[in-house]
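Entry:
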Amino acid sequence: MTPEQQHLIQTSWAQLTPIADQAAALFYARLFELDPALKPLFTGDMKAQGAKLMQAINLVVRSLDKLDSLLP
């Protein structure tokens, strides 16, 4: 990934973070629309699940220049 691509991703992500709750809700709504069989796999609080999703994506976006550090 080029530095320019990293910058574009980080800039786009920065624009999304103020509406992270809504983005996560839209993500899961679309996921379950595409594959309703997945919905029973998510039995907990979906707001908390959405927050976890956004935190995970945020970690990856912040670490684009050092992705090897995220590997086990």
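Residues 24 and 31 are 10 Å apart (CA to CA).
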